[in-house]
From TrEMBL:
Keywords per UniProt: G-protein coupled receptor, Glycoprotein, Membrane, Receptor, Transducer, Transmembrane, Transmembrane helix
The organism's taxonomic lineage, starting at the top: Eukaryota, Metazoa, Porifera, Demospongiae, Heteroscleromorpha
Organism: Geodia barretti
SUPFAM superfamilies per record: Periplasmic binding protein-like I
Transmembrane spans: none
InterPro entries: ANF_lig-bd_rcpt, GPCR3_GABA-B, GPCR_3, Peripla_BP_I
Subcellular location, principal: membrane
Protein name per UniProt: Gamma-aminobutyric acid type B receptor subunit 2
Residues of the Receptor ligand binding region domain: 46-365
Entry's Gene Ontology molecular function annotations: G protein-coupled GABA receptor activity
Length: 378
């Protein structure tokens, strides 16, 4: 945010970007922050960035259009967030988790594995991945989908589901005790995955006789007591780290090709220099390691471009009848300086949403294009 505030030449009279962070990644906390920041008497906000995980993002994304606020996120991959009829003013710069089911199938295909079990947290994000894989598996059986060199009738799978406040270890034991599976998918958040991994260690469910697939977006060193904030008597950090080195992670790679690392992005900084700056900032205790830091920068940059485009239109005296604004011309309100925006200005809120659709640039991560389907990165 500091870098973008410096590098963005804001058109007109507008305030720098600021950030408010919910204390926990939950529905309640994100809504609390949103309502506090939009309550009567508070300075009107012109956009929402976040809210972090899909659980926190979903409720805010579903209501932000009632305040005529555009909303963009960089760490929320729930597939249903692509539904424009529900999330009208919402965009994102991270791919949907719809990509994970084909990726898991690809891992099976690559290693010629025939079976796997999902240990799944009862949240929409993870239930969707499980549902997507089950549908993909059925399509293979029905001949609707083909995977090269894969005997699609041989896939055996099962799943054990646990509640948010339930016992992930008990769910894992239900699968372990069957004795049929040697490949497991940790389809849950990292704090639960850590407990399951410890139970697997106790049972010696380790490489090379057992395989584990997990998400690459977990926090750095998520298996340690320091990051998890919770002590486990049965397993040390060192034991869990050894386990991790023999597991496989599914990672969505946000980095450009190596040859492009040193090319200056549209924000005036190269990927290489951005990574160096981020690494330097981590030495400050106020910063925490993030697995999505590079896409977060491009997300804030896209927001800055949208705001500048909106301000340019106002300063150019673009009228409601202009063809660029045909989707918004029927709404009440007008283009005003960004710092004069209020939540009843439906016309300006719509214009900002439409201007998000026009954002495309070369970022420090990938080429970013925001379109009518919320977002696509290439």
């Amino acid at each position: 945010v500091q870098t973008i505030n410096i590098r963005t030449q804001c058109r007109g009279d507008c305030a720098p970007l600021k950030v408010a962070i919910p204390p926990q990644c939950t529905r309640t906390d994100s809504l609390d922050v949103f309502f506090k920041d939009t309550q009567l008497g508070a300075v009107p906000k012109i956009a929402v960035v976040g809210c972090g995980c899909s659980t926190a993002t979903e409720p805010v994304a579903e209501i932000s259009h009632y305040w005529n606020i555009t909303h963009i996120s960089f760490a929320s991959a729930l597939s249903s967030l692509s539904d424009r009829s529900r999330f009208r003013y919402y965009f994102r710069t991270t791919p949907s988790f719809a990509n994970y089911a084909p990726a898991i199938l690809g891992v099976l295909n690559n290693f010629n594995w025939k079976q796997l079990a999902f240990i799944t947290q009862n949240q929409n994000l993870f239930l969707q991945i499980l549902s997507d894989f089950e549908e993909l598996k059925q399509n293979l059986v029905d001949g609707k989908t083909e995977v090269c060199c894969f005997d699609n009738h041989d896939i055996e799978m099962d799943s054990s589901i646990f509640e948010d406040n339930g016992d992930p270890v008990a769910a894992a034991i239900k699968i372990f005790d069957q004795g049929r599976f040697h490949l497991f998918v940790l389809n849950c958040y990292s704090k639960h995955a850590r407990k399951i991994v410890c139970e697997a260690l106790k049972r010696n469910f380790v490489y090379p006789h057992y395989g584990w697939i997990m998400f690459g977006w977990y926090p750095d060193k998520w298996w340690t007591e320091e990051v998890a904030g919770e002590h486990i008597d049965e397993c040390s950090d060192e034991e869990l780290e050894t386990f991790m080195k023999r597991s496989r992670s599914l990672i969505i790679d946000f980095l450009p090709e190596p040859d492009d690392y040193y090319q200056t992005a549209d924000a005036g900084i190269s990927t290489d220099q951005f990574i160096k700056n981020y690494t330097q900032n981590l030495r400050d205790s106020e910063y925490i390691i993030s697995t999505v830091y590079i896409i977060a920068f491009d997300t804030i940059w896209s927001l800055a471009l949208m705001l500048n485009k909106t301000e340019e239109m106002r300063m150019s005296n673009v009228s409601k009848e202009n063809s660029q604004l045909m989707n918004c011309s029927h709404l009440d309100g007008e283009l005003v300086p960004l710092n004069e925006f209020n939540y009843s200005n439906a016309f300006m809120g719509c214009v900002m949403k439409e201007n998000f659709h026009k954002v495309n640039f070369t970022g420090v991560s990938v080429y970013t294009l925001l379109d009518q389907h919320t977002v696509s990165n290439s």
